[in-house]
Amino acid sequence: MNLKTGILLSLILLLGHTIQGQDCNLSIRGKIIHLENNEPIEAAYIWVSEAEEGAVSDQNGNFTIKNLCSGTYSLSIQFLAHKTISDTVTLQSSSFSKTYRMEEEAVGLQGIEVHGHRDAVQTTTAVSALYGESLLESRGENLGESLKRISGVSTFSTGNSIAKPVIHGMHSNRIMIMNNGIRLEGQQWGAEHAPEIDPFLADEITVVKGAETVRYGPEAMGGVILVNPAPLPTNKFSKTSLNLIGATNGGMGNINLVHVGGAEKVKGLGYRIQGSAKRSGTIKSPGYFQDNTGVSELNLSSSLGYSSSKLGVEAYYSLFHSELGILNDSHTGNLSDLENIIENGRPFSDGEFTYDILNPKQRVTHQLAKLKSHYHISESWKVNFQYGFQLNHRQEFDKRRGDLNEKASLDLELFTNTLDLYVNHTHKNELSGTWGVNLIQQANSNVPGTGVTPLIPNYDMVNVGMYAMEKYSKGPLEVEAGVRYDFRNVNTARYIDNELRTADLDYQNFSAFLGGLYHISPDLTFNSNLGSAWRPPNVNELFSEGLHHGAAAVEIGNADLNSEKSLKWINELQYDGNKTHLEFTAYLNPIQDYIFLNPTGETYVSLRGTFNVYEYLQANAFFYGFDFAGSYEFTDKISGYLKGSIVQAKNTEDDSYFPFIPSNRMDWGLSYNFAKDIDPKTNKITISNVLVAKQNREPDFDIAPAPPAYALFNLAYTKQVNIGENKMNLGLQVQNVFNTEYKDYMNRFRYFTYDMGRNVLLKINYEF
Questions:
Q1: Looking at the chain, which terminus has fewer C-beta neighbours within 10 angstroms, N or C?
Q2: Positions of E strands within 652-682
Q3: Contact criterion met (CB below 8 Å) for 475 and 30
Q4: Using CA atoms, how far apart are residues 37 and 118, in angstroms rounded to an integer?
Q5: Cβ(92)–Cβ(100) under 8 Å?
Q6: What is the pTM of this model?
Q7: Nearest-CA neighbor of 691 among 707, 712, 670, 706?
Q8: Domain 225-352+359-767 belongs to what topology?
């Protein structure tokens, strides 16, 4: 072998060894979000020129480019109406991950729908949302019933017309509802005080299941519900949506009309006008009508907003008005009548259908006005201002003699002012955060002239909260922490037996949280959040004294109640594959000084009837449980879903159980899509089954034992058709197909009646 040949062979062997030893199993992973609000960007395009490989970000903003060798690469990220990002990435012995924040830039494109901004839900705790097709299917239902489509969420109801959401066993003043960014403030402390909100407002309803007191304040210790309309358009745009809904049970009719527009001459100016009306009559259980269960509802809202590259301003107003009957048979004349109907389990008469709403009934009017503005100090800093005013007028009417029958027995006016001032900072590096101050001023008045001693006193409340939250994002990892301090003062006054009784109470506390989210792979995400929370006792829990007409019960408060304090640890694992979606949530939630309304077993007899007596008590509690939800596409035509929840709540002081904790439940369904490949519009039928177990974890005493388990079958058909350039969605739903007779443990009227029987609904949604 000559020298040249030897050198050549040596170079070949050396090159082969180098190639063999080079690591080509490396990857570039990243997350793409908006610079302004950290909201994930879906469908951004990522290109690596040297490898001639590309990727598209998913709905969470994540992307991965695999099988890269060590070396230096040029990365380009593009998304419509955003500045292109160019980056140089060096891969050596490990893969690369980074979070990219894209900045908007003005573009002039015809036929593109451009909307203003809506702040993203910034949290590392478990979040579920109702939107798109699922939200469309829920139209015509109240907020509580709509949210039962989300695992871990159930309802605490008073009859079939009034339902309030329950998250992981928590409800009422432990769940905060945000109406277009404003915390909803009404007389929400009673089981029959349904949220004063029109679900037709929402383009998306989001449920945050963790303790969120740092972000939103003390009343968010059990979770938060965000009811958000779509962002207003910022260019020439016009769309009108019409919803028509009819139901056989109760003869319900529901209409909703929304018009959204953007100005042609004033760039950035948009508006929305929305209105809905609902009317239903007597609800029917299998075999009989539930007397006096009609509903009348009228809602209006309007928005006007302006948005530019630096400044955003929005004004909003909504009016919610409802009148609904309270089941006649829940108001009995004497003790023997009360005992007999509870023993019978249903009204003695079969009733008849009518649209009339008589006493006992409740009438609620809620008005909300909001002014919001933000200003970009720089590309990284934004200052936000929001003011909200709310007036809630609640009247409850009882059966009374003569002219008194026209007067409300409970007449409350609640005035609330909220002021939020906060700054957001988002940078092109890994840090972002929010610092702010929140002020709430509230005044509650009993309107005189009822002739009845008020159930709760007049009161004034002031709450000041200061908070700071910081978030670190790098590639697949997000870590978030926050702290908050609240101070609350409550002054109360009322006359009882011509004696003035007053109280001046102060509450204060810190709350904090630490959470993290990690994208194990593009399909698999794990998040964990540990948050402390607290809630001062509400005025009704402290000072209730008398008949609560809507609940048909006497409630007794306890002035010595302490603030609730809790620590909630929640973990969620979520998988999103091509055909499979899975999510599993588990939580632990010890609560010190948990406040609950407990039946005493006593009855109160008056000229207006005989009523069960409840009292507010306090004990240490331990809540824990899990939710699960999943869906799978078996074929192009057939898909299925499964979801369920288990809630356990124990009184750790005497090893007993609390009343009104949801029992275990599961919901499954199968769908068949008739649509062809050439006709991809919705055209499917779904059969589903709801299974609810008997609540075996009962308190030591209850007025009646927990009802047995039940199973309900439901049927739904949805079809989308095109009418010219417009589209129409048609829906036919049959609830409780077999007209099953059942009672739900979480219905306070289960002592007197069965729940609703079969109900057939026709739904039409037309956009033009």
A1: N
A2: 656-657, 665-673
A3: yes
A4: 8
A5: no
A6: 0.86
A7: 712
A8: Maltoporin; Chain A (2.40.170)
pLDDT at res. 109:
42
197 contacts 227 by C-beta, under 8 angstroms? yes
The Cα 261–Cα 315 span in angstroms is: 15
Per-residue tokens: 456: 């709760």
CA-based angle 152:157:162, to the nearest 5? Answer: 115
Question: What stretches of 350-449 adopt beta strand conformation (E)?
Answer: 361-376, 381-397, 410-426, 431-446
Residue 237 tokens read as 């745009």
By three-state DSSP, how is residue 587 classified? strand
Q: Is the dihedral of CA 334, 338, 341, 343 positive or negative?
A: negative
Exposure string of 431-467, with b = 16+ CB inside 10 Å and e = fewer, is ebbbebebebebebebeeebebebbbbbbbbebbbeb
| Cβ pair 632, 579 in contact under 8 A | yes
Domain boundaries, the chain: 26-102, 225-352+359-767
Q: What is the DSSP letter of 115?
A: B
In this predicted model, which residue has the larger pLDDT, 119 or 39? 39
In 3D space, the residue among 353, 356, 357 whose CA is nearest the CA of residue 757 turns out to be 353
CATH superfamily of 26-102: Carboxypeptidase-like, regulatory domain (2.60.40.1120)
Q: Token pair for residue 714?
A: 């439901």
Give the amino acid at 287. G
Q: Distance between CA 522 and CA 539 in Å, rounded?
A: 48
Instruction: Identify which has the larger pLDDT, 10 or 328.
Output: 328
C-alpha to C-alpha distance for 330 and 105, rounded to whole angstroms: 61
The count of other CB atoms within 10 Å of the CB of residue 706 is 18
Q: Could you give phi then psi for residue 22, rounded to 5 degrees?
A: -75, 140
Could you tell me the two tokens for 90?
A: 């060096």
How far is 315 from 310, CA to CA, in rounded Å? Answer: 17
The amino acid that residue 480 corresponds to is E
- Identify the CA nearest to 174 among candidates 124, 142, 209, 123: 209
Q: In whole angstroms, how far apart are CA 744 and each of 83, 157, 291, 301, 326? A: 54, 9, 19, 34, 18
**Cα–Cα distance measured from residue 302 to residue 272, given in angstroms and rounded to the nearest whole number:** 5
In this predicted model, what pLDDT tens digit does every residue of 410-462 receive, in sequence order?
899 999 999 999 999 987 667 889 999 999 999 999 999 888 888 899 999 99
